[in-house]
Amino acid sequence: MNAVTTLHDDRLFPSDPTIRAIARRLYGAVRNLPIVSPHGHTEARWFAENQPFPNPTSLFIVPDHYVFRMLYSQGIAMEELGVGQAEMNADEARRIWIRFAESYFLFRGTPTRMWLDFAFQELFGLNERLCAANAGAYYDTISAKLASPAFRPRALYDQFNIEVLATTNSPLDPLTYHQAIRDSGWKARILPTFRPDAVVDPDFDGFRQNVQRLGEMHGEDCAAWPGYLRALRNARQRFQQLGCTATDHGHPTASTADLDPTAAAALFARVIAGHADAGEHELFRAQMLTEMARMSLEDGLVMQIHPGSRRNHNRQVFTRFGRDVGADIPMPTEYVHALQPLLERFGNEASLTIILFTLDESTYSRELAPLAGHYPCLRLGPPWWFYDSPEGMMRFRELTTETAGFYNTVGFNDDTRAFLSIPARHDVARRVDCAFLARLVAEHQLDEDEAVEVAHALAYELARKAYRL
Question: Range of 119's domain?
Answer without folding.
Answer: 54-148
